[in-house]
Amino acid sequence: MFKFEIIKKSMTSRARRGKLHTSHGIVETPNFIPCGTQGTVKAMTPLQLKEIGTQIILANTYHLYLRPGIELIKKAGGLHKMMNWDGPLLTDSGGFQVFSLLDIRDVSEEGVEFSSHVDGSKHLLTPEKVVEAELAFGSDIMMPLDECPGYPCSKKEAEDAVKRTARWAKRAKKAWEKAPGNSELFGIVQGSTFKDLRERSAEFDHRNRFQRLRYRRT
Q1: Which of 48, 56, 50 is nearest to 28 (CA)?
Q2: Quick check: 75 and 42 in contact, CB under 8 A?
Q3: Residues 6 or more apart from 134 whose CB is under 8 A from it?
Q4: Average pLDDT by consecutive 10-residue portion of the chain (218 residues)?
Q5: How many whole angstroms separate alpha carbon 133 and alpha carbon 79?
Q6: Is the pTM here over 0.85, yes or no?
Q7: Partners of 28 in the beta sheet?
Q8: Which residues contact 13 (CB under 8 A, 6 or more apart)?
Q9: What is the architecture of the domain spanning 33-211?
Q10: Are 201 and 190 in contact (CB under 8 A)?
Q11: How many CB atoms lie within 10 A of CB 10?
Q12: Domain residue extents for the chain
């Protein structure tokens, strides 16, 4: 089970420093996370990343789902082995592609149907399929499928995205709770630039306890 350890708190604000204990090592927070979208950080080897003090890498479920695909990653022994990286891994859900691939996708309550930017083939990503993929990858930290609105957007559009993200998160949590393993499912905060919507989204994540993390103060 993961553990989050608070090691320092500001006397004048709510800022804090901590250590996130995962099954593949410790991540200090706050943290700069290099982006290895397709399973590799461009122009750098895993050894070089270790040498500069990298503690965790981010990869993207949407891109890995298309190439090299879930089955090939499983045959390789999981994403850690495929990447030759023994530290913690965080996988984004592909929710950002809901925004960035605006012209080749359709969003519905079921999920996101999109045309592959690689070969044009049709795919449907649902909250459950995203969790299934991330579990197959062996991610330490998984993000659930979310709807990321563009900027600028109306408050109605942002509120609709907050509500759908919450509904999808509940479905993702159900799928995650059925699966054994050491992966953690973290909630995502939406709400665009509207403070009340972002607070509502954050409160939803907190209230529904998306992490099985144990907290300890030192």
Answers
A1: 56
A2: no
A3: 61, 91, 93, 142, 143, 183
A4: 90 96 96 96 96 97 96 97 97 87 91 93 96 96 94 96 96 91 90 96 85 42
A5: 11
A6: yes
A7: 19
A8: none
A9: Alpha-Beta Barrel (3.20)
A10: yes
A11: 9
A12: 33-211
